[in-house]
Amino acid sequence: MIRRLTLGIVAPLLLSSSLLSATAHAAGYPQQREADWIAPSFTFHTGETLNNFKLHYITVGDPANPAVLLLHGTYRSGADMVGKDFAGEMLGPGQPLDASKYYLIMPDAIGAGKSAKPSDGLRAKFPQYNYADMVLAQYRLVTEGLGIKHLRLVMGNSMGGMQTWMWGETYPAMMDALVPMASQPIEMASRNWMMRRVLVESIKQDPAWNGGNYSTQPPSLRLANTMFGIATAGGTLAYQALAPTRAQADKIVDDRLAAPVTADANDFIYQWGSSSDFNAMPNLARIQAPLLAINSADDERNPPETGTMTAALKQLKNAELYLIPASAETRGHGTTSFSKFYARQVGDFLKALPQR
């Protein structure tokens, strides 16, 4: 039985199956704008349907230019892709994704940023979503909301990287190229999943969570997030350089524990739990587009020494891996947030693609 849910979003005018409403015009890159795509309904993999479904996004550049889809990491937002760490060496004049030559699309995933999420009002009654739902929502935004039939590139980081593998499998003729970063196509398992499971359970087992019906954010949210961040991102060499003494290590922990809590516990649980059934391996052979995978040698969640990525890439006809060398300057799983480590490689990869 399909359960239909409605969020309090007013959609007075529908354009075909969606409403495109611009919400802001930001300075920085050519024709940068924010908008919402609102569909009358969206059906999740569980069969649940959410009415007045909203997906927020940022675009940069001229819609007449080749389109590029950029996908953010877990519990982040599309705004990451116009931040200086990524955009600073990617979107400027003469850079790999020169905003004057491409039309860049940066959606907020389901459950994150300004897109539909549990904290909008449904709390723990919000439909349980997974990465397949996120990719479907992105596809509908691109095709129905923006009227784009083909993408020059799909590129994503961490969660967005895993979804990039899925884009290549689900819509193999839709793009010219794929760049998944800080990810692998293998089943969500091993330490990567175990740490996510503990992260979610540590909040759910906090009595203050109260089945998702809390009045203030559970204290476990701050502690769990701090522990997870230190344990699964940051880089071994980087932390040794940043905190070679106990006093310096304590200072980092104290600063993180003192930072304001801006997350919502239900949103947090949904976001991290949404990766539970990820596994791109069974359909890897469907990928047709040339692929450049970018990982960091010190990635705590995707350790290269397992050899799983190398084995996976052998199943593809046109794929290569750029492994960023570990150093005190890299940040483990967080390394690929900084385009300075791979901008040249992406530029060379795009230049070698056939022109369309």
TrEMBL record:
Cleaved signal peptide residues: 1-26
- SUPFAM superfamilies, sorted: alpha/beta-Hydrolases (SSF53474)
Give the UniProt keywords, A-Z: Acyltransferase, Amino-acid biosynthesis, Methionine biosynthesis, Signal, Transferase
The lineage's top-level taxon is Bacteria
- Domain AB hydrolase-1, by residue range, is 66-325
Note one Pfam family from the annotation: Abhydrolase_1
Identification of the protein by name = AB hydrolase-1 domain-containing protein
Native source species: Herbaspirillum hiltneri N3
